[in-house]
Amino acid sequence: MGKKSPKKPATVAKKPRNEKSSKLFFLAVTPIVVVIGIYIFTVLKSPINPKSSELGLAPVFEGALEPNNHLQAAERLFENEILGPEAPMVYKGNVYAGLHDGRFVKFDLKNNKVETLLRLGQSENCGSYENEPKCGRPLGFRILPDGTMYIIDTYLGLFKFNLNTHEKTKLFGPDLVVEGTNMTLLNDLDIDDEGNIYFSHSSVRWERRNFVYVVLESASDGRLLSYNLHTKKFRVLIDSLDFANGVQLSPNQDYVLVAELTRARIWKYHIKGPLAGEKTIFADNLPGLPDNIRPSKNGGYWIGLGAARKRTAFNIIEWMMTKAFVKKFLAAVLSIDTFPKLAPKYGLAIHIDEKGRIDKTLHDTTGRVIAKVSQVIEDGDNLYFGSYGSPYLGRLNVKNLKL
Ligand SMILES: *[C@@H]1O[C@H](CO)[C@@H](O)[C@H](O)[C@H]1NC(C)=O
Questions:
Q1: Is residue 26 in some structural domain?
Q2: CATH number of the domain that 104 lies in?
Q3: Does ligand 1 lie within 6 Å of residue 172's CB atom?
Q4: I want to staple 259 with a disulfide (CB 3.0 to 4.6 A). Which of 195, 214, 246, 365 is the partner?
């Protein structure tokens, strides 16, 4: 008994030492376990396999980029009757566009009506993420003077459609393999006088409804191709593009432009002249991510910028784009529709001259009236603004604006 009692304090004295070292052990190990846990979770859960993408410093909004809020004077046509009139075009006085729910429509501006002209996919239960591939989504189209239209439905392929007879022919689908890869996310097109269709596909892996992952992944698997209607031959003109987007031929068809959205730049592919067959940069470090390019009346091009890039002390999106693991982690924890909400609310369209210099810009500095601009077209004194996600067609009378 007497021997046992002195032992007791000894064991009591030992305990705190054990607690101390185990506390230290947990302090050291916990962060390591957490980091390994996040790593494993991210690798297992993330849908994307991104590369870092370096854009350099975003432009300062001065000179031609000086914010002006002209876009806040625009009207919203057919508000809440439509969604995402991506690529509006004027043909014989009427405006046409493809919509988010898969319809291709004619806007009857006199009677304020939307008329469905064409649907390439199913017509039931359209407008949801789940059904988008079945319903289709027309993205780019061109109408020839005789009413023949060439139209890209990103899910269903390239079609020829006659606006007068409604006769429809499929030319090819996005599953077609050209030089080793298919053409997932077919995007925009233009056509020359010799029957060459110039078109872009933005990704090999992701469909349009997952376009955010194309942006985040920076996989550089987009391309500019041509397809000849007579020989039925394809050619890859530019490959390794980070989200190839809008396509536009020059007025005399000696070059074709293609927007590389995620790199904020526009390439020029030379069709004729001393540089024929080569590509050069047409415009670089744009103040936003370029979507469609369309010609303007007095030379040059209008370009819709899907999101603005403005130099600020710290730009979280531009920073994030340079960190592959951050993108991978965020794609694991956030739902895909969270990302567009992170972008600053800003509406922006730019005009570029034939040398590739920005000479006019139209802003909505809060994105209150016009945002998510995908295309700008000119018709008389009006500019129309397409959008990949806005519930209206924008229109701005520029007669009295000093542009
Ligand atoms: C294109 O190829 C990718 C990768 O092999 C595949 O995941 C995708 O489903 C294909 N897309 C089409 C439209 O066939």
A1: no
A2: 2.120.10.30
A3: no
A4: 246
Total domain count for the chain? 1
In a domain, 29, yes or no: no
Short-list 308, 400, 315, 359, CA closest to 70: 400
In a domain, 6, yes or no: no
This prediction's pTM: 0.92
In a domain, 359, yes or no: yes
How many CB atoms neighbour CB 122 within 10 A?
13
User: What is the rounded average pLDDT of the residues 72-87?
Assistant: 97
Question: Residue 245: CB within 6 Å of ligand 1?
Answer: no
| Residue matched to tokens 């509006």 | 88
Residue 173 CA: nearest ligand 1 atom is 13
The two structure tokens encoding residue 258: 């293609």
Q: How far is the CA of 186 from the centre of ligand 1 (A)?
A: 12
pLDDT (0 to 100) of residue 14: 52
Tell me: pLDDT of 343 over 90.
no
**Cβ of 204 less than 6 Å from ligand 1:** yes
- Whether the CB of 146 sits within 6 Å of ligand 1: no
Structural domain including 155 reads: 54-397
For ligand 1, atom 9, the nearest C-alpha belongs to 205
